[in-house]
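Here is one chain, start to finish.
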Amino acid sequence: MAPATDWLESSGLPLRDGVVCDATLAVGPGIYAAGDICRWTTQRYGELRIEHWTNAAEQGAQAAHNLLAWSVGDEGQTYEPVPFVWSDQYEAKIQVLGRLSGDDDVEVVAGDTGEFKFIALYGRAGQLQGVLGVSMVRALLPYRKLLIEPVSWEDALAFARQQQT
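Its structure:
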């Protein structure tokens, strides 16, 4: 999806596949962006633009908070979410926490891929990067905390083994 930024081309705002923001979602003094149009930098994932309504809602609240902080001379807080997207595809509910890449290490830690009901961990450079859940909504939730406080790949696998007992 390409963000509709044509109307901003003469605004002087930095545009690159969206409106380029800093880690607090600021584009410039008193200017903040949120939602599908916002491209911001995170410490963990680098530059992101997420096209999902969950992010838009959470990001909008943070941008509003930071705008109000700016209006009274305070610094805003960085926006460092655990990215979360989901989709219903026929009978399957697909959920993704974090960021997945095709060259990640992948380990199915629960369920059965043949039954389209499983949880898979995605790791890179010895760190857990993301979790994919298909039709295992409740079982996926405990993995979010592993992405809030980054854990090693080995610790993530140990956590998964613990969940099976």
